[in-house]
Design goal:
Layout: H1 2-14, H2 18-32, H3 35-52
Length: 58
């Protein structure tokens, strides 16, 4: 549920720029070698994509 909340928060804050924001986070964390952080933000991106496609929080 935390990732869905994060996806909603990112969407509210960044709107159309949410994908770009997430891509930046993933890039920064990958450069730092934070694999867990990368995986977390990729999961948030998946939630954001599902919401954009009319999905529901599960």
């Amino acid at each position: 549920m935390e990732r869905w909340a994060a996806a909603l928060a990112v969407d509210r804050k960044y709107g159309a720029g949410a994908d770009e924001f997430i891509a930046g986070r993933v890039k920064d964390l990958a450069i730092k070698g934070d694999e867990a952080g990368v995986m977390r933000w990729l999961a948030i991106a998946d939630c954001l994509d599902a919401l954009a496609a009319g999905g529901t929080i599960q």
